[in-house]
């Protein structure tokens, strides 16, 4: 299935954007789609061959899931390739536009259960929440 690409431009330096994207103390603050969701746990062994495990759930605890996988490749301040536990590939690229502007591009293989558009909207909602968190903190 054809990968889905989303991107966003953040008005902060690439070093800060990179740190906030991969640091568990920040991940728990932005890694969810809407205010009725949260990310109570984020664990990451940030190295090639390392793993990550993020817990996303409704605040009322009625539903939740783990978003986890393995880190395949890291190019510092450039991109990270991962493979999710279900085998889907995800690549996140960080493009330095200038000293205070960074573009984040996510390319991910969609899963079969939900429509491409629903997945694009969901992943973009999380990326937009990340963008607002980085710019406001």
TrEMBL record:
Pfam families, alphabetized: AHSA1
Domain Activator of Hsp90 ATPase homologue 1/2-like C-terminal per the UniProt entry, residue ranges: 13-135
Origin: domain of life: Bacteria
SUPFAM superfamilies in alphabetical order: Bet v1-like
InterPro entries: ASHA1/2-like_C (IPR013538), START-like_dom_sf (IPR023393)
Stretches that traverse the bilayer: none
Membership in a protein family: Belongs to the AHA1 family.
UniProt-recorded name of the protein: Activator of Hsp90 ATPase homolog 1-like protein
Source organism per UniProt: Kaistella antarctica
Lineage: Bacteria, Pseudomonadati, Bacteroidota, Flavobacteriia, Flavobacteriales
